[in-house]
Structures are given as C-alpha cells and as structure tokens.
Amino acid sequence: MPIFHEPVKKYLYELGQVEHPILREMQAYGEAKGFPIVNCEVGRVLYQMTVASKARKVFELGSGFGYSTMWFALALPPSGIVHHTDGDPRNTELARKYFKKAGLLNKVRFHTGDALESLNQTPGNFDIYYCDIDKDGYPDAYRAIAERAKPGNLVITDNLLWSGRVAESNPGRTTKAILEYTRLFWKDKRFASSMLPIRDGVGVHLRLKTNRRF
User: Fold this and answer.
1) Which residues span the domain enclosing 172?
2) pLDDT tens digits, the chain, 214 residues: what are they?
3) What CATH number corresponds to the domain at position 60?
4) Mind spelling out the 3-state secondary structure of the chain?
5) Dist CA 171 CA 173 (whole Å)
6) Residues 207, 153: contact at Cβ < 8 Å?
7) pLDDT over 90 for what percent of the chain?
8) How many domains does the chain have?
9) CA torsion, points 51, 38, 107, 102, in degrees to nearest 10?
10) Is 21 contained in some domain?
C-alpha cells in the first residue's frame, strides 16, 4: 500500500538531497545494493532533532553500515558520541571506513552484535535513542528504552508505517509487532508521541517530566 503518490515521493526525495560528499556516497551505496537506509528525507529530521535537543549522546539500535549514524555524528557537538550497533561485522567495518574518511571516527562507538544486548551492556543515559532494529523486536525495544529514558530524552523510531501495511485489516506477524510497539508508546503517559508521515513513518516520543495531560 503506497504511502505517497509517486510524484510526491519523488519530489520529497529530490528536495532532501544534500551536498555532503560522504552522505552522498553512502546513499548511493545503499541504493545500489538495495540496502534499506533512512535516506536524506529522514536524515535531515535526525539532524534537526539532534541539534534542537542539544543532544550530546545518542544510542542507535540498528545502524546498518552507518548512514543514519553519520547524520547524528554531523549534528553532534565536537565532544558528542553516537553508538553504532549492528549484528554483521561487515557492516561495522564498512561504517568504520566511512567515518574515518569523514574525519568523524572519534564521535562513534561501535558495537557488533544484538542491539538490545549492546544497549543493556552500555552504562549511562542517552539524550536520543534511535530504534531501527528488525521489526519483530520492536516490542522488546520499547520495554528496554521506555524504562531507561529520562525526562527530556527523545526516542525516534523508523518504519512505523511499514509501507502502509499497518493499515491492513489482516496484518502479518511483523506488522503486528510494529503496531504493538506503536500502541505501547502512544498509551504510555510518560511520553508524548507523534508520527511524522515521511518516507516510511517516523515516530517521535518525548519523555516528559510529568505524565501527559491529553
């Protein structure tokens, strides 16, 4: 089920293009390999939210070869750190090469293995938690992140519209996991949640100081 009419999709994609050479190289690689990345449309939002929230520490659950990680790293202050997680060591190594080429290797901490295990094994608090793991694991990600997030922290989630499948009358197992994750955040009064209908649906969840009133 298409989320956008094709001309609108093309317009947004073209509008989002950037000049940064490493981002362009990474995007071209993802498109050539059919590797799912957030693309420039969502990347711009990640950059904006990182700057606007004055984030210094970001933890990504599911980073692939580091395209979204690069957006976070570019937005963070010089002393900022983003944690990259992926289960495939080849993706970790490729990401490391891109960050070295960009001169941003000092801003990244790499974890190879299960993203939730990496989060649980990493101490401290994070200003932004970004979730883009295998979608069947989204409900577990909610439970791990929601209890850890502190007031003022942001949780950003990719693929919450799942190519429109979330609106189907008979959703499959993976779609049900996404729907459960969305329901859990929307019902959790500790968070103010919203959905940005860009690309494949981006959830934004702000941890509040007091329970929300709406």
Assistant:
1) 6-207
2) 778 889 998 998 899 999 999 999 999 999 999 999 999 999 999 999 999 999 999 999 999 999 999 999 999 999 999 999 999 999 999 999 999 999 999 999 999 999 999 999 999 999 999 999 999 999 999 999 999 999 999 999 999 999 999 999 999 999 999 999 999 999 999 999 999 999 999 999 999 999 999 9
3) 3.40.50.150
4) CCCCCHHHHHHHHHHCCCCCHHHHHHHHHHHHHCCCCCHHHHHHHHHHHHHHCCCCEEEEECCCCCHHHHHHHHHCCCCCEEEEEECCHHHHHHHHHHHHHHCCHHHEEEEECCHHHHHHCCCCCCCEEEECCCHHHHHHHHHHHHCCCCCCCEEEECCCCHHHHHHCCCCCHHHHHHHHHHHHHHHCCCEEEEEECCCCCEEEEEECCCCCCC
5) 7
6) yes
7) 95
8) 1
9) -110
10) yes
- The CB density around residue 197, as the number of other CB atoms within 10 Å, is 11
Locate tokens 């933890």: which residue? Answer: 59
Token couple for 166? 């979330």
